[in-house]
Amino acid sequence: MDISLSDFSYNRLAALAKGFETPEQVINRLIDAFESDQNKRPELFFNPVNEEEFKQALLDSKQVKVEMFKGDGSCEVGTWNARSISADSSLRANIWSGYLRGWKEKGIVRAVFTVQEEPEPTGSVIESAKWQDYKISRLESGSIVVEREGRPVTIVKPFLRKVAEDLKVDLNNANGNQMNTRQLGSAIIKKLKG
What we know:
The chain is an alpha+beta fold and 194 residues long. It has two domains: 1-116, no CATH class; 125-193, no CATH class. Helices cover 37% and strands 25% of the residues. The chain has helices at residues 7-15, 23-37, 51-61, 91-97, 103-106, 156-167, 181-193; strands at residues 43-47, 63-70, 75-81, 108-115, 125-131, 134-139, 144-148, 151-152. α6 (156-167) runs parallel beside α7. β7 and β8 form a beta hairpin.
């Protein structure tokens, strides 16, 4: 959908631009500033999108990339090392009392939380198996990678849990503890190769 502006309105908008902002970026920054003036709590976005899956991935990884967007158009990026969070912890209470403490004073209007998994896997593929239109591979480093139509799946553990449920693969290891990504991926590949 295209929106046309008069030269007068376009010039007013251009005068509000910072750096190399596009007209859309200027408009979004102005909307963010207006919304923050309304004392609304910042919108929270999670990756994985489902909040339960996000929390489970966080419990596994303990590391989250945080992007805090401010009403002035700036973005502050940081890392949340969530070592002390447990299954019983309130995710949102940790966020509001931690990274978003003082959000009004900081001018934060939106925050994006992305679980960081292991560093980018490297090495040769030792074994792999197909499940539907996905390819699940174990690398020589032990890392598990998942691809769909040649594109990597970035958050692997929640995906593996769903596959395990479909294949009736136990999510716990021999000690009764939840399997980590490497253990679960290996168990799934073994089951698929059957």
